[in-house]
Amino acid sequence: MRQRDVWVYLGGEEREETLRLRGGGADVCPCRLPWLGGSSPRMSFQNLERQYLKGYDWSIFHYLTVTMLVLLGGIFLLHITAIILLLIATIDNAWWFTDTTSTDIWARWVKMNGVWNYTELPEYYQQHHEYLQAVQATSVLACIFAILGLFVFVGQLFTLAKGQRFTFSGIFQLIACLCIMIAASIYTDIFHKDEKNGWYGHSFILAWISFVLTFISSIIYFVLRKKTA
């Protein structure tokens, strides 16, 4: 139950009273309202409350509500998109291409007689085994933190008070952003940098795109946290 100060006329005398507004979270400015009559101030203020709520313009409240819902829906879609791109980048075998090979961070496929055959990663990768494990681990962690951030985002809408929402989602997204950035940076700096007969595949590109999306979503979460504080 919220309280707002209003001015009313009681028998020609101006007095400051308190009007209890039930429901509605919009701020109401102090205003001058006519005396509505009644046998007692208690009954009069009940009438005043009904008249005030009846005449209040709720269009602004509805506009803000719809705007917030659209914003939350957009953030949700952005988060889902980032998760999908992270999963594709981590799972799909398209980090490095040549005319006859397709390589990801887990294995290599070789094209023989028009058929792609699964093979182990070449010795070149085994020479940089620690870097390869770092790429694999950070890619998986990026997916995990992004998915956890989505569940936290949905859960905190119904459990946390204003000013505390979106903080944990922003932290999870920022960690996912750092993880996929580390994975893509190591892969760029260590693997295939001297090879001229191949090109980076769509999984590598999607890894960098997901880095941008997770970074943007983490910033949005932190900004929303300040807006709702």
Structure, explained:
This protein has 229 residues and is of the alpha+beta class. The protein has 2 domains: 55 residues, no CATH class; 168 residues, Butyryl-CoA Dehydrogenase, subunit A, domain 3. It is built from 6 helices and 8 strands. The radius of gyration is 29 Å and the shape is elongated. InterPro entries: PMP-22/EMP/MP20-like (IPR050579), PMP22/EMP/MP20/Claudin (IPR004031), PMP22_EMP_MP20 (IPR004032). Keywords: Glycoprotein, Membrane, Transmembrane, Transmembrane helix. It is found in: Membrane.
Biggest sheet, in brief? 5 strands, antiparallel
| CATH-derived topology of the largest domain | Butyryl-CoA Dehydrogenase, subunit A, domain 3
Query: Which band does the percent of strand residues land in?
Result: 15-25%
Q: How many structural domains does the protein architecture include? A: 2
First and last CA, distance: 20 Å
- The average pLDDT is 76
Pfam families: PMP22_Claudin (PF00822)
InterPro entries: PMP-22/EMP/MP20-like, PMP22/EMP/MP20/Claudin, PMP22_EMP_MP20
Transmembrane segments: 60-89, 131-154, 166-187, 199-224
Keywords: Glycoprotein, Membrane, Transmembrane, Transmembrane helix
